[in-house]
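Data card: per-record layout.
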Amino acid sequence: MRRAIFYIVLGFLFLITGCASQNLFVATQPYSVDQLLNDSIQNEHVIVPDDKVSVSIWGHDDLSVGSVFSIYNSNEVYGKWLLVDKAGYVNLPQLGKTRFSGMSVQSLTDSLTQAYSQYLKKPVVVVKVLNKQVTILGEVIKPGNFNLEKEVYYIPEVIGMAGGFDFYADKSEILLIRTSNETEQTYKLDLTGFNEQMLRNITLKSGDVIYVPARKSKIIDKRSNTLIPVASFLSALAVLSTLVF
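The structure for this 245-residue chain is written out next.
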């Protein structure tokens, strides 16, 4: 009888110790927040191969691809965009093969305006990158991929786009994962210790992943309906054993 109780208690302890939250990402050696702040200073998106870009020229739909000036608006779903090839080029009406990769939206706009000035009088050119996204995973209401329509986004904004934090979100251990020059960099952020001004100094870039881990209590709380009856049963066994032996 005592041996049976021993094995039951041992199994219960194993069940408790196995209740740790299984978080997806672990930052073993995260980069410092100071590096993230410095990286946020240069926030312009630099066009890279496989980017989807629209080029709009006011009054010239024949030269535009995904024009924001007409009813044929830039739309990724309907293919109204140009795909930057592996070498960093696209083929434009009138201009032909043109390098896009390595340029910011503003620098490309200036370059195309100058190039089209050879054919048009004071062309108005608008360039948009349509596939800028951030990914939010973990303890938020609506995790997923979110498009970046503006040039500048802050962490509270994208958390809001995901519906806000879930009840079990650990706001002190949030990870921001960024790939820069083919190197993955992970930053650990304690949002409970950041003031609003500090958060507005951290801007997000296309391709960033924000991971909100769960507090350690999540699994225990989820299994409480199972643990409480088991604990009651063990207590009853303990009382019974004192009476029998």
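Known properties of this structure: The longest helix spans residues 224-244. The longest strand covers residues 174-180.

See the next section for split statistics.
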